[in-house]
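Intended use. Records like the one below are meant for learning the mapping from a protein sequence to its folded structure. Do not use them to infer anything beyond what is encoded.
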Amino acid sequence: MGRTSFLLDKNALRELRKKRGLSQRDVEEALALALNRPYPKFNQRKEDDHKRDQGKGYQRIELRGKTSPKTAQALATFFGVSLETLQGQAPGQAESIDQLALRLQRAHASGGSKLVAQAIANADAPKTVETICRALAEKLAPKLASARLSGNRQALQQLADDSGLSIEQLCVSFDSEGAWYVHDDQSLQRIQISQGLYSVIDLIRNADMPYLKDKSDTQIKLTKEDPWYRLEIGRLTHADRIQCISFARCQPDSVGLHWNKSSESDAKQIARWLKDWAYESANIVHLLDEGLVPGDVSQLRLRLTHLSEAEQTSARPAIISPEIAPDMASCLLASERERGKSHRFVLNCLMASLEAHLRPQLQAITTQGWRVLSDDGRKIGMWPPLEAQVDTSGPRYRLELVWEAAPGQYQPAPLREADRQYLIKQIQGWLG
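Structure written out for the chain above:
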């Protein structure tokens, strides 16, 4: 029988960690202390064991979005949040289901809930009333949302009769979530009504977006014109290569739907929840007031950090710029933009500069046996051969794509997964 897994939201985990200025290693060490388990030093292991254990610990939790219930609780305690927050549930969502479950318990206690009585009778194994009511609340929630949003009074009345609650008691738990109208012009003009803002975000993250697999100059742009948010995905210079998802708050009534203005809190949550996804899905991103990132692909740079062997502290990072004459760069970039490949062109120029900068340093150790992997989000880590490591489980070098927002000021730049893997292969190629 397999171990029970507790599902977590990867973006919520990463956001909580970065908000506190912590590395993945910091969180892993804290977990080791909380769970009373040793923190491994990989250089004490054989090479095969080292490779097998590479992805273990917190890094794997953040990558896969699941862990054991015990570790999930330890993480919630460490970050000072609820388990529901770690699962990425929007504020109020978990509380709404809890309220409905409590009302079902009270209805059962008074002998008025056919649903709870039937669930108890049909249970395969003995369960508490609290557990059964919680499970029923989770099943009722989507049915209740559907009935409310469609204005189906008959369906609402049937749910009320079965649960032993009035229609008002059923509906009050979900008023805080709000309804959202979502239109995706790519998926056969699909229209969907979603309950709660996080369900909209989840719908966007999991939507089929073929233009994200297009050429390197893909872009994600989020704009707002009340009551609508408009998300454009693709090559925005080509009208036939753009997917648009529009969404707005709405309120169902006896006539149909009418639009509600979104709040400033909505805008902040939408931008925050979409940012990690956007930065890992496209190379050019514009999220509301944040502006275009990067402002221009010619502003892209590589930030190379050399981490010390023993302390995993870093010296001042080196900024790698593309070595190409400005007049030639302008002409070539204009040509590559027409082809939708200007971002890839700049990446190739940066990689040539990186090789010229880094190869002499690597030759002092060895160019053979290095491992090059994704590390700490959108960064790339370079681990030396096992025999060249001293007392560290981390990379010797860390590479990050940044853009020069102002002279001497560098900010993280988007880098979609396909292009990050492209960089990794390029590095592996000239390492031999």
